[in-house]
Design a protein that fits this description.
416 residues, mainly alpha, two-stranded antiparallel sheet, 19 helices, 2 strands, disordered C terminus
Amino acid sequence: MRTGTAFFQDLPARGVERWRAIAVAALAFTLPLAPAVLPALMAIVIALHLPGILARTNGPRFNIPWRTPLPWAALYLVLHIIGMAWTSNTDFGWFDVGIKLPLLLLPLLAFFPGVRAAGRSSALAAFCLGNAAAVLICVLLAANRAIGPDGAGLLDFLSSQFSAFLHPSYFAWYLSVALAAFLLGGVGDQWPRAIGALYVIVICIGIVLCEGRMSWITLPIMLLWALIHGWPILWKRYLVLSLIVGSLVGGVLLVMTSVNVRERVLELVTAAESEQPHDTTSGAARRIVWRAAKDVGKENLPWGTGTGDVKDELLLRYKEIGATHALEHRLNAHNQFLQSYVALGIPGLLALVLFFVASMRSVIKPGQAFRACFLLLAIMNWSVESMLEVQAGALFTGFMVWLLWWPDDATSSSPP
């Protein structure tokens, strides 16, 4: 028997399964709001699942779901531990391993079948609500700053000034996944239509205000995907068409009224033309560090620099080529695939590629739109940010792949 509101319909009625589901939903809700408490919540989630694994009468069985991202996320962390063997900067190396630990700990739970995925839909709903709450809080904080004596007007609503809890690139990624969960993952089917319409408007506003060019690119892709996916349902069709029109109008107004937004849009065209080692624009700086990362990776084939030496080697390369902005800001490769290539060489890059390739069979079937969209969003965001180098990216990735490919029972891995 299950109980719950329209938002949390699949919460178990009682027992340890209910507490597990509540803990998972709490972690999902907190992801965009309180990064500092996430390690503790993750520990609680793991602790609540362990008794179900250990209590099996014939002992816990181990099963690796190869055709999902789960084992490859875990392998990626294991390779970083192995990479400590040829690392000089062990302090940074072990710090990096700690950051990526959720890529192993959360997927590892799925390797032990028998603990049912109780409350998966509730966890996705909680994640959506957490992101909406984060956007509303950020808007209120920005409005408070804007009307204050030192207010900067519209600039208080953009990018790092707007995103109060996370780096704006990570917040935009979270919001994009939350929008996909609502439009493609079935979350929107459980909510009252009026609340659902308000929700997607709030999330779209948040994505735009994070001012990330990748999120501006992925937003229309997701909306077109959702339009095709939901076309047979009249209210979804009207909703998504309204969002497309509203996003276009809002984007044009932002470009017309904000010099900062206009400059970021122009960077997409001019970055390659004006690229110099000392350039500070976002687009040009990325191209510079990408080239430096490729050079460092080639020089350290086939095994890479080692887990702890990747940042030191990149900084040394920035100094050699005169990339003062990248050196002063101690930039990483700003591309997770390049970052992995530099740190762990061919094995690290291969593990990251297998993370996506091995999952293809599980997302090309009917009913897998959200899983497929999550992987697409990860590929696109990881291509411009080293998302797994900080807790906000590593824990979120470990949690979402576990949640989306979490086996329902000992033999299946049903979609959310």
